[in-house]
Amino acid sequence: MDIRPNHTIYINNVNDKIKKEELKRSLYALFSQFGQVMDIVAMKTMKMRGQAFVIFRELAAATNALRQLQGFPFYNKPMRIQYAKTDSDLISKMRGTYGDKEKKKEKKKKALEQAANVNKKPEGVNTQPPPPATVQVPDNPPNYILFLNNLPEETNEMMLSMLFNQFPGFKEVRLVPGKHDIAFVEFESEAQAGVAKDALQGFRITATCAMKITYAKK
């Protein structure tokens, strides 16, 4: 059955015991390695159980993800992936509302900025705002173990393993009990750890949390 390449990919044989929000976050972490994910549709209705749609901005990203992740053991079940038959009404509508949502956010942001400017009465001569501070991540000497922080509360071992196991030499992820925002990732060598560190520095598992990666202290 030949289906025309599409920005939207259809996945089935998904483990339906996973909560919807966790499922969407894990799919996002896994698929956003291949390109910008516009949206993920996963429903828990009887008809849609064990299935999901992932919408990419670029067609090439959808194609790449389909090839690379075909049969990937996602929560211990091999994913079956194909292009969606069409951009279904649901997907098209979501694409439409996605743009509107962003515009609304932008409008609200502008309105807030304007309000802030009206209320701000400069008293001193210097009205120049200070330059934005660039966040530099202080680092330790190279190590085969990476230290991750600023992780969102929902982070789990599965998500981090999916992100890091695409890099050669990946060995394991270790979470810290009672601390959701930090973790350690071990590689076979310092060089391999360095490649993963550079590639995933600042990666956002959720929209608000940019992951900070340093070498673990020896």
TrEMBL record:
Single GO term (MF): RNA binding
Keywords, alphabetical: mRNA processing, mRNA splicing, Nucleus, Repeat, Ribonucleoprotein, RNA-binding, Spliceosome
Any one of the GO CC terms: spliceosomal complex
Subcellular location, record wording: Nucleus
Segments of this protein annotated with the region Disordered: 97-139
One Gene Ontology term from the biological process aspect of the record: RNA splicing
Pfam families referenced in this protein's UniProt entry, alphabetically: RRM_1
Residue ranges of domain RRM in the record: 7-86, 144-218
Chief location bin: nucleus
Similarity comment: family membership: Belongs to the RRM U1 A/B'' family.
Name of the molecule in the record: U2 small nuclear ribonucleoprotein B''
Source organism of the structure: Cyprinus carpio (Common carp)
